[in-house]
Amino acid sequence: MTLRGQFALATLCAFVLAAIAHLAAVLAIPYLAEKDAFSRLRSTLSADRSEIIAAPGDLGTWLPYPDPDVALSTCAYTLEEGPVRVSARTGALFQSVSLHARAGGVFFAITDRAAVRGALDLVLMTRRQLDEALATEDPDEPSRDVRIVAPSREGLVVIRVLAAFPSQREEASEVAKSVSCTIDRE
C-alpha cells in the first residue's frame, strides 16, 4: 500500500471513530444530565394533578422557547407501585396528551378528538402489569381502558392545551392543570 493509501485509510478510520464518539456522547446526554425534565418534575410523582410549566403569555418558565398560545402542563410517572391512570376532561379547546419515556422520546400521543363522552382515560403499564390485568380480567366484561405499555418504568405525561385567542388563556391553563395522573389501584 502506498503512502497516500495509508494516509487515506488512517483519515477514514479517524472520521469513523470521531463519528462514533460524537454519537455516543449525544445519546448519553439524557442519562448524564442532572437537571433533566424528569428530575425537575419529580415532585409531581406524589401529586394527583399535573403541574403547569408554561402558561399562555407567561414568560416565567424554565423551557427555552415556550409557545405563547399553549398551556403546557406535565406530570412525572413511575410504574413501580402499579399502573398509572391519566384522566383528562376535554372541552372546546384543542388538547393533546403525549407520553415520553424518561431516557427517550415520545412513545404515544393522542388528541381530544379521540375522547369518549368528553374524557380521555389512559392507563400506562409495564408488559408484566398488562399480562396480570389480562389474566384477572372477566372475559364476559373486557376492560374499556386504553392500555399503553410503556417502554420504561419512568417518564413524563405532557399535556398541551391551545388558547387560540387571548381571552382563552386562563381557561387553557385551568384545563391543562386539571389533568390527573394517579396510580391505578383497580
Question: How would you briefly describe this protein structure?
Answer:
Helices cover 28% and strands 30% of the residues.
Give structural attributes.
186 residues, Immunoglobulin-like, five-stranded antiparallel sheet, four-stranded mixed sheet, 9 strands
Kindly describe this structure.
- The protein has four helices and nine strands, in the order H-H-E-E-E-E-E-E-H-E-E-H-E.
- The longest helix has 30 residues, at 3-32.
- It has 186 residues and is an alpha+beta fold.
- Strand 6 (119-125), helix 3 and strand 7 (146-149) form a beta-alpha-beta unit.
- Strands 1-2-8-4-5 form a five-stranded antiparallel β-sheet, with helices on one face. A four-stranded mixed β-sheet has the order 7-6-3-9.
- It is extended.
- It folds into two domains: 1-32; 37-183, Immunoglobulin-like (Sandwich).
- The chain has helices spanning 3-32, 37-40, 127-136, 169-177, and strands at 51-54, 70-78, 84-89, 95-101, 106-111, 119-125, 146-149, 154-162, 180-183.
- Helices cover 28% and strands 30% of the residues.
- The termini are far apart.
